[in-house]
Structures are given as C-alpha cells and as structure tokens.
Design a protein that fits this description.
The chain has 374 residues and is an alpha+beta fold. It is 24% helix and 39% strand. It folds into 4 domains: 85 residues, conserved putative lor/sdh protein from methanococcus maripaludis s2 fold, CATH 2.40.420; 89 residues, Elongation Factor Tu (Ef-tu), domain 3, CATH 2.40.30.170; 58 residues, RNA polymerase II/Efflux pump adaptor protein, barrel-sandwich hybrid domain (OB fold (Dihydrolipoamide Acetyltransferase, E2P)), CATH 2.40.50.100; 74 residues. The protein is built from 3 helices and 21 strands. Strand 16 and strand 17 form a beta hairpin. The longest helix is centred in the N-terminal third of the chain and has 33 residues. The radius of gyration is 44 Å and the shape is elongated. The relative contact order is 0.20.
Length: 374
C-alpha cells in the first residue's frame, strides 16, 4: 500500500529547500566582499623638531698637576676647594742635588770667563804689536784670534749650562696654569714625586679645574646632526634646578663621528660665574633638528611589525602590500619613514601583521587624517 503526502506538505518542503539555497548564496556573497580598511596618504614635508638628548657639564679647563722634576714635597699651600689665580705658587719641592749642580755650573762659567779674558788680552796685545812692521808674525795674531773666539764660545756654553740648572730649579715650584679651583689633593709634604710617565699609576699632587665657565658636551646621533652650526642657541635643563630652563650657544662641533657610538660630540659654552651649575652633573638638551630636504610622514598607528620586519601596509589597486620602513622623528602623532614609498601612496591607517600582504581590501579614506610634522 502506497501513502501519498498531502499536497500542502509537498509545497512546504519545496519552499524550505528553496530558502536554504538562498541563504547559502547570500552567505557566500558576504564572504566574497573585500575587507574595508581606512587609508591615509603618505605626506611629504620639511621637518623641524626637537629631540631630547643626554649631556654632561664639564669644566672648561681641567688638569692634573705633576712636577717636571723629581724631588720631595716641601710645602703645599692649597687644599681641596681652594680658589687660585693664574701663576700662583701651589707646591714647593726640594732637591738638594740641584744646589751642587748650580755651584758646579757657576764654577765652570767663572773658569771659562777667566780663560776668555786671558785669551782676549793676549790677542789684543799681539794685534797692537802687529801694527809695527816685523814686530809679530801674522800667523801668531791669527792663532791668538782663534783661541780667543774658542774661549768666548766656551763662556757662552758655560753660561747656558748655568741657566739650564736655574731653569730646573724653577721647576721645583709648581704654579697654577690658569685661574680655578683645586678639586683634589692627593699628596702631602715629605712625599717623593716625579714627572708623570705614560701609563704610570702615580697620582697627581693636585687636580684643578676652571668651573667659572663650563662645557656642555652632548653626543648627537648621526641621524640628527643636520643643521648643527656654531652660535645656535639650544635649551637645556639640569636636575639640580628643577623647573628651570636654560640656554647656551653651540661653541664647538667635532665634525666627525665617534666610531664606537656613531655620534658626534658638540660643545656648548655655559657661563657659571655665579656657580649655578656643578661641573660633572648631567643635563638634558632639547636638540633642534632641521631636515634640509623633504621627508615622508605617516601616522604612528600605521607602523606595524611582525618581529622580523617594521613596515607599513600600502593599498594599491585594492590589494595590500607590505613596505619595509625605518623611522625617524616623531611629532604631533606623525613619524618620519624611510623606505620604498612615494608621496600620495595610500597606506592603512592602523597597521597590523594580521592584514597579510596580497589581501584584497576596499580602501576608505580616513575621516580625520593626523597632522604631519612641520
């Protein structure tokens, strides 16, 4: 016996089947729709900005004081913190052997002068006698002249030896090479001291510095050396005077990079007559950066990375492309980028490695493009 379904059930089944097929087609159509992404154009502009760089205040002049000759310290008239003037005697040494050398040199000079006086008298006597024809042989006069000249040369040599000894004795007094302050005293009377030797470990007797004027030394990275020029005013701050901002002029530029740090030393002169700053303290410099040519800028949010690459995502003909970039100055939400980009290229405003290269997307202009560094 065969059972037939009522006609209304057959019609309902057909309707449901048709509806299912329609839902599948609709879902497929939605899946095939490209992802919508916000894009912004790559901008080109001249960049001016300031970057914070660490720096250090150093004395304008500093020196370790060693003696030029060996001797014992007799007196030291200064100590740590003493203010000294240029040429002031700081240390006196004693070296008894110099007295013997001086006496020996003086005795030699006196003997040479006596011989020279006798030779000169002999020559003058013979020269006068030679005025009478036949009284003295001409050869005798010439010999006397040469002897006198030799003795005069010996006098000059002896006197120079005496001056050398006196100069050596002058080295027993150590004077301040410039006006400044004694920053360290390492030895005391009675100590045996001598000249500094290369690589030697002997401490200096004194250390002194000129702190009325300081050098603000800043190491400028190679990426920020453009526009560095003497005379430019630069702002800086120090921790010892919080809330204060100071300015100083660029005074000296190394014009060469340190091969270890790839940075260039720049010095600013800082007046310190009122002792507002302490030599050796650290400072923070607001270093001005000026590009001499236009550079490209994108929003900071456009920079993405996948632990191997730093990139932006460019959209061209509805397809994504990863473009490797390096970054530079950040300002007002925008960052300099350097890579295979051109002004006007459309890039995804919010970069992410989840958006793979080669993906079909629908580009939509961002409603509020970020400002470009100017």
């Amino acid at each position: 016996m065969t059972c037939k379904a009522p006609p209304y059930l057959i019609l309902a089944s057909l309707a449901l089947a048709g509806c299912g097929e329609g839902n599948k087609a609709s879902s497929k159509a939605v899946a095939d729709q490209p992802q919508v992404v916000e894009v912004v154009p790559v901008k080109s502009a001249l960049t001016t900005a300031t970057v914070g760089l660490p720096a250090q205040l150093a004395p304008y002049e500093s020196v370790d004081l060693y003696p030029k000759v060996a001797g014992f310290i007799q007196t030291i008239s200064v100590d740590r913190g003493s203010q000294v003037s240029q040429g002031q005697v700081l240390v006196r040494l004693t070296a008894p052997e110099f007295a013997a050398q001086r006496e020996q040199a003086a005795s030699g000079a006196r003997a040479a002068e006596a011989r020279a006086a006798a030779s000169r008298a002999t020559y003058e006597r013979l020269a006068n006698a030679a005025k009478t024809p036949g009284a003295v042989a001409e050869n005798d006069v010439n010999i006397a002249r040469q002897g006198s000249a030799t003795d005069e040369a010996q006098v000059a040599s002896a006197r120079q030896s005496l001056r050398n000894v006196a100069q050596q004795e002058a080295y027993l007094m150590i004077r301040a090479p410039f006006a400044g302050v004694i920053t360290a005293r390492n030895l005391h009377p009675g100590a045996l001291v001598g000249p500094a030797s290369p690589g030697g470990s002997a401490p200096p007797i004194l250390q002194m510095a000129n702190v009325k004027r300081l050098r603000l030394v800043v190491q400028v990275p190679v990426a920020n050396v453009q526009g560095v020029r003497p005379g430019r005013m630069v702002s800086f701050t120090v921790a010892s005077r919080p809330g204060r901002k100071f300015q100083a002029a660029v005074a000296r530029v190394a014009d060469a990079l340190d091969p270890r740090t790839r940075a260039m030393a720049v010095e600013l002169d800082v007046a310190n007559a009122d002792a507002a700053f302490t030599a050796g303290e650290f400072a923070s410099v607001q270093w001005p950066v000026e590009r001499t040519y236009p550079t490209l800028h994108v929003p900071q949010t456009a920079i993405a990375n996948d632990q191997q690459h730093q990139f932006v995502i460019r959209v061209a003909n509805g397809v994504t492309q990863w473009v490797d970039v390096s970054t530079g100055i950040v300002k007002d939400g925008a960052v300099e980028v350097f890579g295979e980009l051109n002004p006007g290229d459309q890039i995804v405003r919010r970069g992410t490695d989840a958006l793979q290269a080669g993906t079909k997307v629908q580009a939509k202009a961002a409603s509020e493009p970020p400002q470009v560094a100017r």
